[in-house]
Design a protein that fits this description.
Rossmann fold; 2 domains
Length: about 375
């Protein structure tokens, strides 16, 4: 079949992207689903900082490719062997495909399953090969999803079925921003009620962490960022305090608010500056949980003596330590209860033809989550 999609041909082009146009809108050919695969019509896709990192060249990927990894849509066709999903089902896409049988899956950590790692590194589907073509040339897949397009062929293990009453614009966020941010708080860190907590970095992932920390009962709950509008939004979503990270006294403000520092610092920005701030606001015995993906070559320095003598801990959180089939429905229930109002994170809708403008806005820090609507459903 033919469809329109955004194709990334070159990484590292200069901004503004409306001028350099790293994403080119083209008509591509998409193969039908193979065994264990689905054809999904993309109803909504989120513009995430991970996609921006790919455009910037911070996160190298096989190109040319169709980017995008956070989306919701409608199943239109299923390949052989697919029994749990059928046409017209609504699904959310997730960017890690778990095999269910490896040591990580068996130990309850399917987010670390490596079954798809080699395929994703090559820009291929996990079953092998590529389903995207332009003329006689094959194009690469991003995270096995490639949702900046009207349609996508994905592995059945890349989706979670969701109720049809959840709007697509909201459902899309559960595939990355929600599971990464909320999962880091509720799964990886296990923030307990009454724990002094700071969330550093208030993008889509960080604001989901704020909402999840409020659900957990963290107190005080301190939001930190360099954008005043995001600090105000975090306050309205449950943060008890907001601290401008640009202030020279920001770390001391957090220590004063908590009587010496937080027990849980959640780094959600993916920058070394945010990582340093998160480590600095920890009290003895505190835990730094990082879900922000810094550039691959970036390094963070700390003093091992201080870490040992104060029993500080540093841990990573990938995909919120989530089991998607368990956690996506759990988080959707919080959403239905009004405790995880992800609709308040939306920063407008875009068409495919506006996607470069959308990434300019994201790079400027002016938005939280823009929703790409490849076509209206």
């Amino acid at each position: 079949m033919e469809m329109r999609a955004a194709v990334l041909y070159e990484q590292g082009l200069s901004r503004p992207y409306v001028g350099s146009t790293p994403l080119v809108i083209e008509t591509l050919q998409l193969d039908g689903p193979g065994e264990g695969e689905l054809l999904v019509e993309i109803a909504a896709a989120g513009l995430c900082h991970s996609d921006l990192s790919t455009i910037e060249g911070i996160r190298p990927r096989p190109i040319p490719c169709v980017p995008g990894h956070e989306a919701a849509g409608i199943v239109r066709d299923v390949g052989a062997g697919v029994t749990d999903l059928k046409p017209d089902d609504h699904v959310v896409m997730v960017f890690v495909m778990s095999c269910g049988v490896c040591a990580d899956c068996a130990s309850g950590r399917p987010n670390l399953c490596g079954v798809s790692s080699d395929a994703k590194a090559k820009g291929e589907m996990v079953a092998g090969g590529r389903r995207l073509h332009r003329g006689g040339d094959a194009l690469n897949h991003a995270a096995g999803i490639s949702c900046f397009a009207e349609y996508a062929v994905v592995d059945q293990r890349s989706v979670v079925k969701v109720p049809k009453d959840v709007p697509f614009d909201d459902a899309a966020l559960f595939g990355c921003a929600v599971i990464t941010g909320a999962g880091a708080v509720l799964n990886t860190a296990g923030v307990p009620e009454g724990a002094p907590t700071a969330v550093i970095g208030l993008g889509g992932v960080g604001l989901n962490a704020v909402m999840a920390a409020a659900i957990a009962g963290a107190a005080p709950l301190i939001a930190m960022d360099v954008h005043e509008d995001k600090l105000a939004l975090a306050r309205s979503l449950g943060a008890s305090h907001a601290v401008d990270a640009r202030h020279a006294t920001a770390i001391e403000e957090v220590r004063d608010l908590t009587g010496g520092g937080v027990t849980h610092a959640l780094e959600m920005a993916g920058t070394i500056a945010a990582f340093e701030t998160a480590y600095a606001v920890l009290r003895p015995g505190g835990v730094l949980t990082s879900a922000g993906l810094a550039p691959a070559a970036a390094e963070f320095a700390f003093k091992p003596y201080q870490m040992v003598s104060q029993e500080k801990r540093i841990q990573g959180s990938y995909m919120g330590s989530c089991t998607p089939s368990r956690d996506v429905p759990r988080f959707i229930e919080y959403y239905r209860q009004g405790r995880l109002p992800v609709n308040r994170l939306r920063s407008g809708e875009l068409t495919l033809d506006q996607i470069n403008f959308g990434f300019d806005r994201l790079a400027e820090g002016a938005v939280v989550r823009q929703i790409l609507r490849p076509h209206q459903l």
